[in-house]
Amino acid sequence: MTVQADPIAAILPPTPRDPVAPPTPTVDPSRWPDVARVPRSPLRAAVARRLLHRAAARLGIRVEAADGRALRTAPPGAPVLTLHRPDAFFHRVGASGLIGFGEAYQAGDWDSPDPVALLTALAAAPQRLVPAGTAWLRRLAVRRTPQSELPTAGNARRNIHRHYDLSNDLFALFLDPTMTYSSALFPTGPGGVPSAGWDGLPAAQHRKIDRLLDLAAVGPGTRLLEIGTGWGELALRAAARGARVVSLTLSEEQLALARRRIADAGLADRAEVRLCDYRAAEGSYDAVVSVEMIEAVGRPFWPAYFATLDRVLAPGGRVALQAITMPHERMIASSGTHTWILKYVFPGGQIPSLRAIEESAGRDGRLRVAAAEAYGPHYAETLRLWRERFTDRADAVAALGFDEVFRRMWELYLAYSEAGFRTGYLDVQQILLTRGQVGP
Fold it and tell me: CA-CA to 425 of 20 to 30 Å: which in 106, 260, 285, 329?
C-alpha cells in the first residue's frame, strides 16, 4: 500500500513546541494525570493528521495555526479549529481518539472562536469523519467502560458524587434561581422555534415541571415518588399542589440544599427527601416522576430501574419520565464505549433510545409507553444559556477553587451537549408510562 503525502503534515511537521502557542494551562498531574501527560505515538499521530485533513475537507472546517495562518482553508464563516500545539494535539487524538480530543482541549492544545459551531459540524455527519471502508478501525480504537465506573449499587453513589457533589455554589453560578439542571420548556415563536432568554428561564423550567406533573396526574393527595431529586424544585411544586412527596437522591450536596429549600418554603410536612438508591425504594405511589435520571442508570441496570418503577406504582398509577434520548442504532453502536464525557463528566452513564425505553419497560415490568413528546431544540437553548452564564463567570468559578483545566472541561461539556441537540444527534422527551393504557 502506498501512503499519499498529507498536505497538513507537509505544512505542519511534528514539532515538540509551537513558538506562537499561548501559555499552557497549569495542569496538576495528581488531579489530571492524562491531561498532564502527552502520549507519544508517531504512527497513530500521523493517522490522526490524515483523518483531520479529510474531515476538514468533507465538513468545510477551517484549520488554522495559533497565529491565524490557514492550514486548511474553508469558505467564509466556516467553523474554525485553531491548533495551538499541533504535535501534542495529534499525539493525543492518535492515542485516545475522541477522549484525546477532549483532553487536548482541557490542556489548551486547541481552541475555537465558536466551539458549538465546530462541534455541530463534527456531530452533524459523524459517518463522514472516517473514510469509506475504514470504519472497522473504530473497533480497534474504542475503549470499554471500566468496571469500577459501572453504576452498580456499590458504584452509583461514587459516580453521582463525582458530578453532583462538586459544589452547590458551582451549579448556582450558571443555573437559574430554581436550581433546575434539566431541559427547560420555552414559549415558541413562528415555526415552533423556542423563544429563549435568561430572564425567561425560571418560568420555562416551571413550565417543564408542571407539564410532567400534569402528565403524571399529580394533584391534592397524590402519593408521589420522585427518583432523582435535583435541588428540589419539582418536589416543591408537587407539594404546593397538595401532593405527598418522597424524593430519592444519592447526592449529599443536593440532599442538604433540597431539604433546606423545602423547609424554608414551609412544605416539610408534605415533602421528604431521602438519601437512597432507586433500587431500595419502598412504598406504594400513585405517581412516579423521574427527570433525566435514566441516563445515569446504565444500560445493564435498566431492568432493575423499570422493575422498581413497576414495583412501587399503585394500581392505576402513572409514571412520567423526562429522558435524553438518541437514535436507537447510535445507542447500540456507542453502548459500553468509554467516552470523554463518561471519563470526566458523567461516569457510568448511557443515553437510551425511545425504543430501548419501550422495550425495557415492557420486558422488565408491565409498563407501556402511552405517550411521548420530544422537544430537543429547547435543550439546545437551555444549554446555550448555561454555557454563556458559566463562561461569563469564569472568575467566580476560579474563586471557588476550580482550576483552568476544570473550567475548560466544563465549557467543552456544555458546548458538546448543545451541539448534540442542535444536530438531532440527541433529543429530550417527556414520556408517560402506564400499565397498558394508551394515550394521556
Answer: 106
